[in-house]
Amino acid sequence: MRVLITGGAGFLGRWLCASHLADGDEVIALDNLFTGSRHNIAAFLGDGRFEFLRHDVCEPFHVECDRIYALACPAAPLHYSRNAVRTIETAVVGVLHALRLARETGARIVVTSSSEVYGDPEVHPQTEDYRGHVSPVGDRSCYDEGKRAGEALCAAYARQYGVDVRVARPFNVYGPFMSR
After folding, report:
1. Closest Cα partner for 36 from 8, 68, 69?
2. Considering just the CA atoms, what is the radius of gyration of the chain in Å?
3. Of the four, 2, 91, 97, 132, which is 20 to 30 A from 123 by CA?
4. Residues near 37 by Cβ (< 8 Å), separated by ≥ 6?
């Protein structure tokens, strides 16, 4: 299988690269290194099944692939608040470009969203039918609303174009290779 991972030099992307390489897949990591790091993928650079593309998902891209993981987006408040406009662009335009590629290639796409789509939830734990308690203009809205819009794009592409879309909402992940 040929796998594209946007945000491939980031924390979660790095682990997906490692997992797919261990499974014998070809992996293309696409990242602009805004919060990702070459250090995270250094161990893979000598592997003939691994390719690194320094590219910003806000610009169109084309890669032949069977599966796409759309992970590109600053996730920590320290990072996404540095450039709120760029954060929401990455969360929306980056996902749009990945969805377009999935449609063109017939690839399955897994888009990472966030528990932040719930905003400041009034219900714990959140169930899939909980719609959240969000502020579209708050300090965190560039990330929260970007992820919500990204999920809306996923649903629209699945309904309108039949794109094979999965949405994952990782909650509070941390560990080695995470940016500080």
Report:
1. 8
2. 16
3. 91
4. 9, 10, 177, 179
